[in-house]
Structure formats: C-alpha cells, structure tokens
Amino acid sequence: MKKVIQVPGDEEVITLASNIVYGQRQEWCHAKYRQLCMSLMKPRCNYPYDEDKTYPLIVWLCGGSFAEVDRNVWIPELVYFAKQGFAVAAVDYSVIQLTRYPDQLEDIKEAIRYIRAHAEEFHINPDRIAVMGESAGGYLSVLAGITGPERIYDKRTYQEYSSEVQAVVAWYPCVEMEWLIPGRKEVNMSEDVENYPNLSDMVREQMPPCLLLHGTADSLVPAKHSEVLYRALEEKGNTVDLYLVEGANHADRPFIKTEVKQIIVDFLNKHM
Q1: Domain residues for 68?
Q2: What is the CATH number of the domain that holds 248?
Q3: DSSP letter assigned to residue 125
Q4: Gap between the Cα atoms of 15 and 169, Å rounded
Q5: Strands of 55-61's sheet, edge to edge?
C-alpha cells in the first residue's frame, strides 16, 4: 500500500541528553571521586530557526528516603512537561549514607548554578527556573526555595551565578525528620538525619511561589506534613497552593495523571 498523509507539525519533538556531569565529590579519605550528573530533556531546537529560543526549566529531584537516588526513574512521566514547553533537568544529589547535611542541598544548588552558567548552550531561560521533587526530593525542593538567597550554601563551582529559583513544587514532602528517626536502622540512615531542619521553622517572607501536592491516604508521610507547611508559608504572606489528592497514597498513580500534571503546568506558567 502506498499512501500520502498530512501530519500537523504542532507537537514538540523532545530530546534527552543524559550523563551531563555538573560536579564531583571526594570520598573515602579524599582518595575517591564520585561524579554528579544530570539528564536534560527539552524540546528540540530546529536550527537556525530556533537558535535564540529559550525554555523555562524544571529542576527535578527524585525521592528515595534520602538513601538512594535514580534521577532517570521518572523521566517517562516528566515528558509531559517537556511537551508543554519546559526543559527538565533531573539531577543527582548525594545520599545520606555518604554525606553530611547540608551536602545534598549544596549539590542541588551547584546544579542550578551550573545550568545558569550553561543557559545559552542549553537554551534555558535563567530567569525562569523552578525546582520540583517528590518525597525526599520534595523536602529538598522546599529547602532549596527557602535558602535561595543564602550564599552560605553555594559551595564549589560557578560561584558567580545565583542558585535562587522562581517557583517550588513539592510532591508529598516531609516537613521534619523526626518521623523517620524510629525507622532509621531499617533504611540504613546515619544519625545525621537529626541535623536536617524542620522546614516550617525555616519559612521566610518573600519566598518563591510554592505548590504542594499530597495524598490524603499517604501511609509513609502523612498529609499533615504539607498542611503544616502550607500554614507556615501562608502566615509569612507567601504565595502557596495545597492540593490534597483524595484517597492517594505515597507516590501513588493519581499524581501522574494528566489532570494533576496540568495543575503544575498552570501554576508554573502563572508564577514563573
């Protein structure tokens, strides 16, 4: 069979560049080096027509109880945001067995500075960067937003660039770590978990707009965590939205439904 068809060209072609090294860490008596990488997904630039086009960026932080990270595990679901015109950088950060607080936060801030330093190369708008994460990544996303202007967490490379973000999206984040301490041995956590701050105590005025998503049936991180954080943000006069997903458990299917993803897209388009 031979057939000529007409296909509309209004859908973005998405590309993925994996294993972009943004930093490295010394370990084991400073005798071993571990790379920190990111995977960058974005609409393809059609040269020379899109040469000057830039995209708002979502920095994605995977969850994993602070004990493990696979930056690529959510990539299939994050394609939705790239199809909506966002670039998405899924980044590594150090796990709790190998580091001390605030190493994870310093990793994330270095990744943001690295992206700003290479914004022209990556076709990223450096003035429109959001950080989004789930579970442990949700906690770290909020922490990155809270500490945005605090330069004490900007360590290592690209010091001339800012690590502040313009919006925060947190899926079922914990707010304080005390709930994890009783089960620390089961998840192989060090005592350093006790050094992680309570987010509601750190909330400041003039934070970037924040979107919180939490399931009412979350059996790992109860929804009260997001409710406490919501009240703390609101009391400081910050822009914050909280969506409680009825009947949803931790990392449950409803969070990847199109309706929920579109809530995120609308929030970012409005506030970034």
Answers
A1: 14-271
A2: 3.40.50.1820
A3: E
A4: 23
A5: 14-27, 32-43, 87-91, 55-61, 124-134, 167-171, 210-215, 240-245
Pairing of strands 32-43, 87-91: antiparallel
Which DSSP helix (H) or strand (E) runs through 214?
strand 210-215
Q: Mean per-residue pLDDT for 10-29? A: 87
Q: What is the reported pLDDT for 110?
A: 97
**pTM listed for this prediction:** 0.92
The whole-number pLDDT of residue 189 equals 52
Gap between the Cα atoms of 16 and 69, Å rounded: 19
When the pLDDT of each residue in the chain is averaged and rounded to a whole number, the result is 90
User: First and final CA of the chain: distance in angstroms?
Assistant: 49
| Alpha helices, H only, the chain | 75-83, 103-117, 119-122, 136-146, 199-202, 224-235, 258-271
Residue 97 confidence (pLDDT): 75
> Is the confidence at residue 243, as pLDDT, over 50?
yes
Structural domains in the chain (count): 1
Q: Is residue 9 part of a domain?
A: no
| Top-confidence residue, 189 or 127 | 127
